[in-house]
Amino acid sequence: MRLVAARLVDGLPDEPTVVDVGSGAGGMALVLAEALAARGGGTLVLVDAVPELLDAATAAARKAAAYETDSHTTSVRVRPVLGDLSSEQPSSFLPTADLVWASGVVHHLPDQAAVVSALGASLAPGGLLALAEGGLDARFLPWDIGVGSPGLADRLSAARGEWFAHMREKIPGSVRLTKGWGAVLTTAGLRDVSAFSYLVDHPAPTPPQVRDWALAHVRRLAESCGERLHPADRAVLRDLLDSGHPAYLGARDDLFLLSANTVHTGRKA
């Protein structure tokens, strides 16, 4: 993510304003703060609807900026903003920005194209909107894990796709997005529309953090889309999450993590 942050802030004006919409616990906020500090400073605005997450992101970003400048003071100003894109107009809480970053946020909102237009409108002339949406599903399991039928990873991916479609259908006022993100950015009036992808690649054997991620990921899949799986696969998921079972995921030394994430960008005229 550091390479992504550095790429996005490269070419911004001096002392830019950067907005991280849906900052969560601060994973991207941290590296954006580092990138801004490395290029001389700026303002980082963190936006989230959950106060606890916003506090965590703010603390992480401020610590990262101070560490990067090796001082108790920093040229990066970190400003938290409590805001909810699902119930408020972005113009009510977003400042004019040189860069707006939104990762995995827009697809949770009823009218995705309208939100993209609103985010684009918040940009300063020449400002950049960057949407991290889509890519390739994370792979982390061997094709045959020794329990159940081979190919569990493929069936999990298919079930997640069905869950996502159902999730979108249940959003009140949901509007289908029937074109790609690049076309959405173009329709929003942005220019120089482009995209790039980056890999997350941790080959086996992996550190404990990857095993922890795999366990958390399987738990989320079991909770969100387990009902869409065959009962035999649901039983396998229970075994994978059972620390007392021989198939326990956390005891495997052949887990890996490989995913591709895509960032779609467009610039305000």
Query: Which structural class do the helices and strands define?
Result: alpha/beta
Query: What gross morphology would you assign?
Result: globular
Poorly predicted regions? none
DSSP helical segment count: 8
**H/E series:** HEHEHEEHEHHEHHE
> In which order are the strands of the major sheet placed?
3-2-1-4-5-7-6
Beta-strand content bin: 15-25%
| Average pLDDT over all residues | 92
How many β strands by DSSP? 7
Describe this protein's structure:
The structure is a single chain. This protein has 269 residues and is an alpha/beta fold. It is 38% helix and 25% strand. The chain contains 8 helices and 7 strands; from the N terminus they run H-E-H-E-H-E-E-H-E-H-H-E-H-H-E. A 7-stranded mixed β-sheet has the order 3-2-1-4-5-7-6, sandwiched between helices. The radius of gyration is 20 Å and the shape is globular. The model has no long low-confidence stretch (mean pLDDT 92).
In a few lines, what is going on in this structure?
Helix content is 38%, strand content 25%.
SSE arrangement:
Elements: H1 2-9, E1 17-21, H2 27-38, E2 42-48, H3 51-68, E3 76-82, E4 97-103, H4 112-121, E5 123-139, H5 152-170, H6 181-187, E6 191-202, H7 208-225, H8 231-240, E7 257-267
Helix pairs in contact: 1-2, 2-3, 7-8
